[in-house]
């Protein structure tokens, strides 16, 4: 479903990615691990089209996303890729429901359908009773689950998560891990997750180990 070939990324004269190949199948949960500075977040940002590679190609559903520019790229990203970050980036002046709905409105979907899906997702994530609360009235774990619902609102092909548990305590981190696997089991949702969390990484289908801008090892989970 997702294929990247020979991705490189240079910042000025500094090579950060040095020829990365990756394939992710539908319904897979893949974690990218490695020490700080290995290139994990850079790779995730390239795969999520938030940044452009210096060279190489990325295909999602056979579409060469590296060939897209401007509005076409923004529209493709909005429709096909969901994002979850370490800091949830919820808009403080909007309720949980409104935060979840925003990408659906940007995509131009009918408001009634967007609201119905947002309510379904909030219910699924145990937040139905919190829909009218603003982020300041939600716990850290609740805010991150709102961010997960927002990432799923447009039924993306793939969700990119960058250190999603990095700002959570161990209890909420475990709950979020379980949520990812429940979403995979329930919706066949695909995830690519950059993480330092030593509890989450081994639970994934595969761990891709990065070092010095390259994938140097692949560890398949014994439980899958």
TrEMBL record:
It comes from Chitinophaga costaii. GO terms for biological process: lipoprotein localization to outer membrane; protein localization to outer membrane. The keyword Nucleotide-binding applies. Keywords: ATP-binding, Cell membrane, Lipoprotein, Membrane, Nucleotide-binding, Translocase, Transport. One of its GO terms (molecular function) is transmembrane transporter activity. Signal peptide: none annotated. Pfam families: ABC_tran. It comes from the Bacteria. This is Lipoprotein-releasing system ATP-binding protein. Residues 2-222 form the ABC transporter domain. InterPro entries: AAA+_ATPase (IPR003593), ABC_transporter-like_ATP-bd (IPR003439), ABC_transporter-like_CS (IPR017871), ABC_transpr_LolD-like (IPR015854), MacB-like_ATP-bd (IPR017911), P-loop_NTPase (IPR027417). GO terms for cellular component: plasma membrane. The keyword Zinc-finger does not apply.
């Amino acid at each position: 479903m997702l294929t990247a070939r020979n991705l490189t990324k240079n910042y000025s004269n500094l090579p950060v990615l040095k020829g990365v190949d990756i394939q992710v199948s539908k319904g897979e949960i893949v974690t990218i691990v490695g020490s700080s500075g290995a290139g994990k977040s850079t790779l995730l940002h390239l795969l999520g089209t938030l940044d452009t590679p210096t060279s190489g190609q990325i295909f999602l559903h056979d579409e060469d996303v590296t060939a897209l520019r401007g509005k076409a790229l923004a529209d493709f990203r909005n429709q096909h890729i969901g994002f979850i970050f370490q800091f949830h980036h919820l808009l403080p002046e909007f309720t949980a429901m409104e935060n979840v709905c925003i990408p659906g409105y940007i995509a131009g979907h009918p408001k009634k359908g967007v609201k119905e899906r947002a309510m379904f997702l909030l219910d699924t994530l145990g937040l139905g009773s919190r829909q009218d609360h603003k982020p300041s009235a939600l716990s850290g774990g609740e805010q991150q689950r709102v961010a997960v619902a927002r990432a799923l609102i447009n039924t993306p092909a793939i969700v990119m998560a960058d250190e999603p548990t990095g700002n959570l305590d161990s209890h909420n981190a475990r709950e979020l891990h379980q949520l990812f696997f429940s979403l995979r089991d329930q919706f066949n949702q695909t995830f690519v997750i950059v993480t330092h969390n030593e509890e989450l990484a081994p639970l994934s289908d595969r761990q891709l180990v990065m070092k010095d801008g390259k994938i140097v090892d692949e560890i398949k989970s014994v439980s899958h």
